[in-house]
Amino acid sequence: MIQIGQFNTLEILRDTEPGLFLGDPEGNEVLLPNRYVPESFEIGDTLEVFIYLDNDERLVAVTDEPYIMNGEFAVLRCNEVSNIGAFLDWGMVKELLCPFKEQAFPMKKGGWYLVRCYLDEKSERLVASSKTNQFLDNTELTVTEFEEVDIVVSHPSDFGMNVIVNNLHSGLIYKDNIFQELSIGDKMKAIVKKIRPGNKLDIALGQIGYRNIEPNAEKIMQELDNNSGFLPLHDKSSPEAIKESLEMSKKNFKKAIGSLYKQKMITIESDGIRKS
């Protein structure tokens, strides 16, 4: 079955005047217009193409890569606002519509908004919504503590930064676990630090506990190499100085240098640490 809003691997069936007709094993066909046809091809070859509805509401295949696909979240720019909604730039010829009813607050031309792309079942059109919470559900979690996950930074709160976990769940990075600049729409790897009552997810940008020693130790060694083998940081340094230099907490710093010291990779001096 051809999936709208996704990349599909389809077989070249025939070459026609408007372009190549591609098909799937179930007998479904879609046109790849001439502007996207590769210089060389053979009937029977397969192509990876993105499927959506063109300006004439016809199913079409393209080789362009969109900024967002069906079921994903991304920050997109509003190019125009009309009487039916906002039109967003998602890297395709036809812009992505965000209807007024799907706007968390009114969008303006030139603004950037975190949205989810989804398939409207009635029209079979791909549309966007900035009411992102409606797509998140923590009732049945698909993640466990200490598991590595993909996150999208959603919006700040009084406690820290809300994030979207694996495109499915909501999570929170508490302020004291943020050691780098975060912007809405940032995508990165993170760790499920803790699952609280009610299936609330505490998320950490680094690894947890003993899992955190090796990455932080490696980072410290890299910084030592970048600074002639010496860093003016030690266990008496302020948390602010450590955060500014290494983007990690003082607790994690002390664990990491303790590990490096035991491995005789550093020496700890009165004014800092030195590579052995």
Helix content: 10-25%
- CATH architecture of the largest domain, by name, is Orthogonal Bundle
What is the overall pLDDT average?
92
Task: State the end-to-end CA separation.
Answer: 60 Å
CATH superfamily of the largest domain: Winged helix-like DNA-binding domain superfamily/Winged helix DNA-binding domain
Computed structural class: mainly beta
* Strand order in the largest sheet: 3-2-1-4-5
Range of strand content: 35-45%
Task: Indicate the low-confidence ranges by residue numbers.
Answer: none
Query: Number of helix segments?
Result: 3
CATH C-level of the largest domain = Mainly Alpha
Radius of gyration: 25 Å
Which overall shape is indicated by the principal axes computed on the Cα atoms?
elongated
- Sequence of secondary-structure elements: EEEEEEEEEEEEEEEHEHHEE
Count of domain modules:
4
**CATH fold assignment of the largest domain:** Arc Repressor Mutant, subunit A
The largest sheet is: 5 strands, antiparallel
What's the count of strands? 18
